[in-house]
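Bug: token stream looks shifted between consecutive jobs. Job 1:
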Amino acid sequence: MSTTSDYYLAQAAKCATDAAASSLVQVRDRSLRAEQAWLSMADRLIRTEEARAEKEKKAAAAGE
């Protein structure tokens, strides 16, 4: 199963919501760290997808 950047971004949003709703400092900090991790994974996946699309575009142009 392939994970999409939308999934990662949704998880980051959930962590941000959890952090805002928490009254416990440790829980809030953990949720904020998790949010940053999800955002990092989403960013990495988006950059990979963009690079792959660019590579495919160049390959298609070279094949024509």
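Job 2, same session, no restart:
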Amino acid sequence: MSEGLMKMWIAFGAIAFMFFSVFFIYVSRFKLKRKFLKGLTATFAYLFMVIAGLIIMLVVFSGPVQK
């Protein structure tokens, strides 16, 4: 597998983390009533978002790949 293709799959993984983050925030704000579970799901959501941002930053700033 080429380096460019590997970077693409890593970026797709980061995008999936962003979707998980949106889902967990939605569940936390609108579906859960218990305060502990709301806090736990919100923590996971923000953790996923931070990790996704770091991954995307690494992919973007690692530069172009050689042919």
